[in-house]
Design brief:
Keywords: Allosteric enzyme, ATP-binding, Kinase, Nucleotide-binding, Transferase. InterPro entries: Arg_Kinase (IPR023660), ATP-guanido_PTrfase (IPR000749), ATP-guanido_PTrfase_AS (IPR022415), ATP-guanido_PTrfase_cat (IPR022414), Gln_synth/guanido_kin_cat_dom (IPR014746). Its EC number is 2.7.14.1. This is Protein-arginine kinase. By secondary structure, the chain is of the alpha+beta class. It contains twelve helices and ten strands. A hairpin with a 5-residue loop joins β4 and β5. α3 crosses α11. The chain is globular, with a radius of gyration of 21 Å. The two termini are about 25 Å apart. The C terminus is likely disordered.
Length: about 350
């Protein structure tokens, strides 16, 4: 896998697959935060310490069976880093760092190991659909290999020590990306978001903390990492996610029964906007893509793959649009290119489904 492929391949290989409950759960992520006991944490370490951490991680990575490619942040352009953020392969925080900051990526992009982010190590595993236990198992396998080579900062009372106190303990952040248009249309999310807080969970936008919910997509993740085992954290999250899935399905059924023709009209209006618009802003595109995905799930729209939302939500982000253009684009030019790209993608899918050739 070359850098160019990481940047131009909009949909990671794992995203092209459908996992359990994939009509509502787009993806699952497990992230483990770890630090070396020999060096200061990234918020206060020296440039020399940062380089030493990077060198030790590189040596430890020789024992990982999966082939992973190393990308150094100081060797990437700002636009290239933005694309990696939009694909959820690195965090916005890592993109801002430069001194010895790096990421190790697997070919299928389901494994991402960030170096010198907020912590010395951030081990991330991504899976399609609802696969929290599977993702945790994979992350733990990688963690065990690295821990055998890399002395972690660990306290018998508090567990793994991290830069941010909210990660102390297991260092685990488990999250599920969910498409919840039914709950949004029936105005139930305003009730659900504070309710899940009682279980030590939080709902965030598509790019995590501080981001907004574009296209009715929410990340549901744990807030508590101390005083619970990794397995207990995942079980608690699974219980709540299963309840949200059931409520989203019920909301969709209610919408079909009470306003079926209006819902179908909304879906096809959005489909028409995506299919024929010449200029479209990112928020309108996200809203229309959400409506279109709902229409596919409900059977209103046929002949279009469900994974279209995953693909176009990334393809239409500013970084990707400019990457394809080969340089900076102003807001209006991005809106022009976004509309063009969506039209081309939908026409391509239609041609493939009907047995035509690629454009």
């Amino acid at each position: 896998m070359t850098l160019e492929k990481f940047l131009t391949q909009a949909v990671s290989s794992w995203m092209s697959e459908e996992g359990p409950d994939s009509e509502i759960v787009l993806s699952t992520r497990i992230r483990l935060a770890r630090n070396s006991k020999h060096y200061a944490f990234p918020t206060v370490f020296t440039e020399g310490e940062a380089k030493n951490v990077s060198a030790e991680v590189k040596k430890a990575m020789e024992h990982v069976e999966e082939p992973l490619e190393l990308l150094q942040m100081n060797e990437l352009k700002e636009l290239q880093k933005r694309v990696l953020v939009e694909k959820h392969l690195i965090s916005p925080n890592l993109a801002k760092n430069s001194t010895a900051a790096a990421v190790w990526l697997s070919e299928h992009e389901n494994i991402s190991i960030m170096v010198n982010e907020e912590d010395h190590l951030r081990i991330q595993c991504l899976y399609p659909g609802l696969q929290l236990k599977e993702a945790l198992e994979k992350a733990n396998q990688l963690d065990d290999v690295l821990e055998a080579q890399f002395d972690y900062a660990f306290d018998e009372k508090f567990g793994y020590l991290t830069t941010c106190p909210t990660n102390v303990g297991t260092g685990l952040r488990a999250s599920v990306m969910m498409h919840l248009p039914g709950l949004m249309m029936t105005h139930q999310m305003n009730r659900i978001i504070p309710a899940i807080g009682q279980f030590g969970l939080v709902a965030r936008g598509i790019y995590g903390e501080g981001s907004e919910s574009l296209g009715n997509i929410f990340q549901i993740s744990n807030q508590i990492t101390l005083g619970k085992s990794e397995e207990d954290i995942v079980e608690d999250l699974l219980r709540v996610v299963h309840q949200i899935i059931a409520q989203e399905k019920a909301a969709r059924e209610e919408l079909v029964q009470t306003s079926g023709i209006r819902l179908e009209d909304r879906v096809f209006r959005s489909y028409g906007v995506l299919r024929y618009s010449r200029v479209i802003e990112s928020k309108e595109a996200a809203k229309c893509l959400s409506d279109m995905r709902l229409g596919i799930d409900l059977g209103f729209i046929k002949d279009v793959p469900r994974t279209i939302l995953n693909q176009l939500m990334i393809l239409t982000q500013p970084g990707f649009l400019q990457q394809y253009a080969g340089g900076f684009l102003g807001p209006f030019d991005r809106d022009l290119r976004r509309a063009s790209l969506i039209r081309e993608r939908l026409e391509m899918d239609d041609s493939q489904y009907k047995g035509g050739t690629d454009l």
